[in-house]
């Protein structure tokens, strides 16, 4: 999945917000930071798999944060439907 999709997409940022959005069935796809702590990412990956949501782990937290125009890294970002 291309990182440039995040720049102008309707999105949510952060583990908690992404998890809430997945549970509300409003998520199209998820980006996970490949350098994020596994203990917070693994449950989110499992949730994505259970809900058949595409997810990508090809970018770092810093790259995800930059794409979302925030000054910190993002462990998870979801593009909303």
TrEMBL record:
Boundaries of every Ribosomal protein eL8/eL30/eS12/Gadd45 domain copy: 8-80
Domain of life: Bacteria
InterPro entries linked: Ribosomal_eL30-like_sf, Ribosomal_eL8/eL30/eS12/Gad45
Annotated Pfam families: Ribosomal_L7Ae
Protein name, as recorded: Ribosomal L7Ae/L30e/S12e/Gadd45 family protein
């Amino acid at each position: 999945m291309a990182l440039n999709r995040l720049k102008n997409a309707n999105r949510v940022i952060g583990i908690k917000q992404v998890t809430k959005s997945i549970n509300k069935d409003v998520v199209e796809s998820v980006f996970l930071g490949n350098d994020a702590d596994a203990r917070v990412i693994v449950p989110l990956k499992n949730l994505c798999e259970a809900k058949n949501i595409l997810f990508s782990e090809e970018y770092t937290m810093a790259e995800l944060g930059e794409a979302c125009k925030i000054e910190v890294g993002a462990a998870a970002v979801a593009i909303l439907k």
